[in-house]
Amino acid sequence: MEGLRLIVGLGNPGPEHARTRHNAGFRLVDALADRAGGRFGIEAKLFGETAKIEVGGRPVWLLRPATFMNLSGKAVAAALRYWKIEPEQALLAHDELDLPPGVARLKFDGGHGGQNGLRDTIKLLGHGRFHRLRIGIGHPGHKDRVVSWVLGRPGSDDDILINRAIDDAIDVLPLAVGGDFSEAMKRLHTSRD
Q1: Is 36 in contact with 52 (CB distance < 8 Å)?
Q2: 19: Cα separation from own chain's centroid
Q3: Distance CA 39, CA 100 (A)
């Protein structure tokens, strides 16, 4: 399988959203850029901010959509077109209610599972054949509390766990960027279990 050329962090722009659970994807690409010495710049035609970095010695574009979560697909589709990248070469990092904090999982293809950034991307692409990095944020226990949960900030313990999951994911990204997804998954899915 081809490696990754684009890593998208899903989230909502603006300082009021910066540390919310919903912005776990932004946190991942921010951490990646920090580690690689990348700087984000506004790219109006791609409806977001972009940075170019190297992961495992290979060039990778990072994208932070400025469209708000439920319109993320607009930025993803624009970036794929502009850089002539196949959806199969893209990874979307997002918050995941069905995983506990501290857990991150790689996945390829599938539905949106109620995640609005994935929903919009699948709608615009017409399929779900892209990679996902699911960053666990836990579930509030009742569906009526989900919106305030994802838009809220995690407590300090959960925050530490979310950062740890992001670090674990970043550690295996060179494998994914190189195209060795099965090894990346094996290492990520067995770390700290």
Answers
A1: no
A2: 15
A3: 30
Written as one letter, the residue type at 90 is A
189 is an active site residue:
no
Domain ranges of the chain: 6-190
Residue tagged active-site, from 17, 22, 127, 189: 22
Pick the CATH number of 6-190 from 3.40.250.10, 3.40.50.620, 3.40.50.1470, 3.90.1150.10: 3.40.50.1470
Angle at 53 between CA 48 and CA 54, to 5 degrees: 150
- The two tokens of residue 83 are 């850089």
Written as six digits, the tokens of 176 are 């994914």
Profile the chain (193 residues) by mean pLDDT over runs of 10 residues. 92 94 97 96 96 96 96 97 97 96 96 94 96 96 93 96 97 96 94 55
**What is the per-residue pLDDT for 191?**
61
- Per-residue pLDDT at 180: 95
